[in-house]
Amino acid sequence: MLLINLKETYKQATNKRSVQRRTLQGSGRFIGLGGPDIRDYVKQVRKAGFKDITIYEKDVKVYTKQRRELPRGVKLIYGDITDNLQDKDAFYDLDFCASIVKIEDKILNKIAKIKNFSLTFALRPISLYDTVQRLWRHCKVPYITYKDTHGMVVFYKHKKQNNVS
Ligand SMILES: C[S@@+](CC[C@H](N)C(=O)[O-])C[C@H]1O[C@@H](n2cnc3c(N)ncnc32)[C@H](O)[C@@H]1O
Fold first, then answer.
1. I need a labelling partner for 4 at 20 to 30 A (CA). Which of 62, 101, 110, 149 fits?
2. Local confidence pLDDT in tens for the 165 residues of the chain
3. Does residue 37 have its Cβ closer than 6 Å to ligand 1?
4. 121 CB within 6 A, ligand 1
């Protein structure tokens, strides 16, 4: 049996929020993963400048909570965001709360083609070095690390930014 320990709240996640102030940038369509604190998250996303916000969620328990707390004007979809990465003009915030080892190469390939994104992974069970090497096989973009309950890394790509050489 596979047990996944989903975090129940990000209310104390101050490091996460301050990194998001740098990695979430834009003003057009935004597609992301809201998690258990959808109101705080949407507040952060709106502060970054986005107005047209769509949230995906595939965990029924989290989805039910999100529906109850959904801020006005936000679209919520029950489903897997990785089946919906084709919007060329949207900014994607892919905060999977998982290690890169859980994301298949074919999905990483699709992510590499997105123009604007932020992509967050937990640094376990593999290290920062291995996580970076693995992502850089698909796209060589910069990253920021921070500490939540454990180490995290956020890769980001903003339209006008050059890749790391
Ligand atoms: C880390 S939380 C998001 C936290 C949020 N970004 C924040 O800053 O507060 C990730 C959420 O996305 C959901 N999730 C993970 N992978 C997903 C996928 N492929 N499609 C849809 N939802 C997913 C998880 O169930 C969880 O609720």
1. 110
2. 333 344 667 766 789 999 999 999 989 999 999 999 999 999 999 999 999 999 999 999 999 999 999 999 999 999 999 999 999 899 999 999 899 999 999 999 999 999 999 999 999 999 999 999 999 999 999 999 999 888 999 999 998 654 565
3. yes
4. no
Sign of CA dihedral 105, 45, 40, 62: negative
99 lines ligand 1 (CB under 6 A): no
CA of 35 from ligand 1 middle (Å) equals 5
The answer to whether the pTM exceeds 0.85 is yes
The verdict on the CB of residue 41 being under 6 Å from ligand 1 is yes
CATH superfamily of 14-157: Vaccinia Virus protein VP39 (3.40.50.150)
Q: Are 40 and 47 in contact (CB under 8 A)?
A: no
The verdict on the CB of residue 152 being under 6 Å from ligand 1 is: no
Distance from Cα 163 to the centre of ligand 1, integer Å:
26
Q: Which residue has the tokens 């999100």?
A: 66
- What's the CA gap between 155 and 148, in Å, rounded? 16
Closest C-alpha residue for ligand 1 atom 11: 35
